[in-house]
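[Meeting: bench + compute handoff]

Bench side (C.D.) handed over the final construct sequence. Compute side (W.E.) agreed to return the predicted structure before the next meeting so the bench team could plan truncations. Sequence as handed over:
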Amino acid sequence: MALESTLFNQGYSVVALDGDNIRTGINNNLQFSPEDRTENIRRVAEVAKLFISQGQICIVSFISPTIEIRKMAKDIIGDKDFIEVFIDTPIEICEQRDIKGLYKKARAGEISDFTGVNAPYEIPLQPDIHIQTHGKSEIESLNELFQNAVLRIRFLIKQT
């Protein structure tokens, strides 16, 4: 959300899609099973593709647990418009930052198929942008992400 706000304040036309605004609407019938996670990302990629076709920068902020799922999203959106960003945060830090208590529920067995706890996560092999957040403030991570994203966005704009 901070990246969306920063890009917007710089004059970019941007929309953000994340689990909160997608799972309460278009994907409210999906759970966390492997099949539902794949369908969740497929639908989000299709929505992102629509926004992109209208000239929007679309930030899709989702845990995409497998290389296969990320490849599917890239195939839907298109190689030219897809920028894979890996926000690299140790799971212990994710749990500390978890304001919704989802990790705690997963550890207690209340949520099954939760990425990183009782479901696997495959790290991206060659992400376009790799941000390591451990030991950095939120603003430091945001600035690094913003600088990298703007470079790629400007490149994409020149290509069109």
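W.E. noted at the follow-up: The longest strand covers residues 14-18. C.D. will use this when planning the next construct.
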